[in-house]
Amino acid sequence: MTQAQSAEPMVRFDKVTKSYGPLTVLDKLDLEVAEGEKVAIIGASGSGKTTVLRMLMTLEPIDAGCIWVDGEPLTHMRKGEKLVPADRRYLRSIRGKIGMVFQHFNLFPHMTALKNCMEAPVTVLGLTRSEAEERARELLAMVGLGDKVDHYPAQLSGGQKQRVAIARALAMRPKVMLFDEVTSALDPELVGEVLGVIRHIGDAHDLTMLLVTHQMAFAREFADRVCFFDNGRIEEQGDPAEILTNPQNERTRQFLSAVLEAAS
């Protein structure tokens, strides 16, 4: 691999803009995330944080700019020398490199934990049912749910559901993992178990991770970089300890002060 190739970011937003009517949610966003980097995205509600993740999952179209994943355009595809808007088939192929864990689990209620983790590898990746089952059992054991494989979501706690959702995303063998406020719907005593699983994944796998979170202590400990979003832009970013204890931007200081006050 050449130095130029190895320097290619795993994720790159290039002047990406997104608006809903008169409201600009992302304003010519530039963001690069290196391979294996863990980035925590913080900011007030409506600052554009979750939109970044939803665009990477192609759940939201962009209005302008381009997103790149693993050296390939996500929102566009090459046609000769030009980039043209991506078609559905191309989007599906690139999106296969990305896994997302949502705030509200999004598990199939009529499927067991095991079947939830098997479904996409069989239907999307073409694994045999025995291959998918072996992978699903391994991942459920890794997130501490080896004894819950035959349980349905209604039989699981919120923390257990979220751990199944993490195992399900990992079953697709993504290169990029997205976590969208994955602890915000959980009771406080369940937050630690889910963060522990994310911590373990970060240690055990060389995944690129983007986490939208209000868990500042976890962001400081886990992330390589923190990005503070405000009004669709990154107002400040850098080393987690530096950003979270000594922010230079007044808006960052106001936000962190409000978060600490709410937590006390």
CATH class type of the largest domain: Alpha Beta
- CATH architecture classification name of the largest domain: 3-Layer(aba) Sandwich
Q: What structural class do helix, strand and pairing data support? A: alpha/beta
The CATH homologous superfamily of the largest domain corresponds to P-loop containing nucleotide triphosphate hydrolases
Tell me about the largest β-sheet. Answer: 6 strands, mixed
The fraction of residues in strands falls at 25-35%
The CATH topology of the largest domain is what?
A: Rossmann fold
Judging from the principal axes of the Cα atoms, what is the shape? globular
Cα-based radius of gyration, to the nearest Å: 19 Å
Following the backbone from N to C, one meets helices and strands in this order, namely HEEEHEEEEHEHHHEHEHEEHH
Q: Which sequence of strands runs across the widest sheet? A: 8-9-10-3-11-12
